[in-house]
Specification:
It is built from 2 helices and 16 strands. Strand 15 and strand 16 form a beta hairpin. By secondary structure, it is of the alpha+beta class. The strands form 4 sheets. Strands 1, 2, 5, 6 and 7 form a 5-stranded antiparallel β-sheet that branches. Strands 9, 10, 11, 13 and 14 form a 5-stranded antiparallel β-sheet that branches. The chain folds into 3 domains: 61 residues, no CATH class; 98 residues, Immunoglobulin-like; 138 residues, Immunoglobulin-like.
C-alpha cells in the first residue's frame, strides 16, 4: 500500500485501514502540485459526506451479492442432497366426509408412496409404519415435483394419519406424515305419522295401543297407550339428531294392543334400513301416501310383519355434513 493512495477504505470492509491527513495529502514526486489552498479546503469539506455515501452503496452491493451467492449455493446444495434430506416442500390435504386428496410438492424429481392409518405411525429403523398394518395404500410412480394422491371411501368423523415415502432418482428416500379428520355426518330422523291398518280389536271397538319407534336402537318415540281404531292416523312428528350417523341406519317400530286390564294382547313389529348412500330425492315418492311434507333429503316407510295388529310408520330424514 503506497502512502500516496488518494481515497479512504470503507470501515468494515476487508483490508480496512485509516489514513491520516498527511497521508491523504501526500503525493508521489511525479504528480503535479495540488490546487491552491482554497480549492483544496473546499474539497476537503465535502469529503466526509461523499465518503459515507460511497461506502454505504458499496456495503449494500456487497450484501446483495453475498445473499444471491449464498442463497444459490444453499439451493444447489439442497438439490444435490435430494431426498437424502428434506425434499418435501408442501403437503396440502383436501377432504370431505368420505374421501381425501393429497397434493405433494417436492424440491426434486421423485416418486411418492403413501399409506393411510387409523393411529399414529411409529418409526421403525427410519421408516414410518402403521401397526399392525395400514388401512390403505396408494402411490404416484412417475418422477416429478407435483403429485396428487387420493384415499376413499373413508368413515365420516374419523381421524386419519398418512405416511409418505418420497424417493428421488438416486434411490434416496425421505419420510414424512400428515393427519386430518373427515367431516362428520349429521342426520335428523323424523317419525312423522303412524297409520293403523288393523287395531286388533273385534267389532267397532278401538284398540288400546302404544307404539315405540327406534332409530339405530335409540328410542325416539314412545306414544303411551291410547285408543286408536282401524284406519286412524296418529301424527307423532318426533325427531332425533345423530351427530355422526352410521352409513346404514336401522329404523324399528313396535306396537302393543292391550286386552282389558291384562298386559297380554297383540304385538306387531317391523324394521327398515336407511341407506344413506342411496340417491336422495327432493320429491316425495307417490307410494308413501298423502299428507307427507316434501323437500326433505329422504323418506322411509316401515310396514309391520304379518300379525293381527297391523300398522305403517312414515317418516323422513335430513342429512348434513359438518367439519
Amino acid at each position: 500500500m503506497t502512502a500516496g493512495l488518494g481515497r479512504r477504505v470503507c470501515a468494515g470492509s476487508p483490508g480496512h485501514l485509516t489514513l491520516g491527513e498527511n497521508a491523504m495529502n501526500a503525493r508521489p514526486a511525479h504528480q503535479p502540485a495540488l490546487r491552491p489552498a482554497r480549492a483544496s479546503a473546499r474539497a476537503s469539506a465535502h469529503w466526509p459526506t461523499r465518503h459515507r455515501t460511497v461506502c454505504a452503496v458499496r456495503r449494500l452491493i456487497v450484501a446483495l451479492v453475498a445473499t444471491l451467492l449464498l442463497g444459490g449455493f444453499a439451493t444447489e446444495t439442497a438439490r444435490a442432497a435430494g431426498c437424502d434430506g428434506d425434499c418435501v416442500i408442501a403437503v396440502d390435504v383436501t377432504h370431505g366426509p368420505t374421501a381425501a386428496t393429497l397434493q405433494i410438492t417436492t424440491s426434486v424429481d421423485a416418486t411418492v408412496k403413501a399409506w393411510l392409518g387409523g393411529s399414529a405411525p411409529v418409526d421403525v429403523a427410519g421408516s414410518l409404519v402403521f401397526l399392525p398394518s395400514a388401512l390403505k395404500t396408494t402411490s404416484s410412480p412417475y418422477q416429478g415435483t407435483q403429485h396428487w394422491l387420493g384415499f376413499g371411501p373413508l368413515d365420516t368423523g374419523t381421524h386419519y394419519w398418512v405416511t409418505l415415502k418420497v424417493t428421488d432418482d438416486n434411490d434416496h428416500s425421505y419420510w414424512t406424515s400428515v393427519e386430518f379428520t373427515t367431516w362428520r355426518r349429521e342426520l335428523t330422523v323424523t317419525f312423522y305419522k303412524i297409520h293403523v291398518i288393523n287395531d286388533a280389536d273385534a267389532g267397532i271397538s278401538k284398540g288400546e295401543i302404544d307404539f315405540d319407534l327406534l332409530a339405530n336402537k335409540e328410542r325416539i318415540v314412545s306414544t303411551g297407550q291410547d285408543k286408536i281404531g282401524s284406519g286412524d292416523t296418529v301424527y307423532t312428528k318426533k325427531s332425533f339428531t345423530f351427530s355422526n350417523a352410521p352409513y346404514f341406519l336401522l329404523v324399528q317400530v313396535y306396537g302393543h294392543e292391550f286386552d282389558g286390564w291384562s298386559r297380554s294382547g297383540d304385538y306387531a313389529s317391523g324394521e327398515h334400513t336407511i341407506n344413506l348412500g342411496a340417491p336422495r330425492h327432493d320429491a316425495l315418492p307417490s307410494s308413501y301416501g298423502s299428507g307427507m311434507p316434501a323437500g326433505h333429503d329422504g323418506y322411509f316407510v316401515v310396514t309391520t310383519d304379518p300379525a293381527y295388529l297391523e300398522f305403517d310408520v312414515y317418516g323422513y330424514y335430513d342429512l348434513t355434513y359438518l367439519p
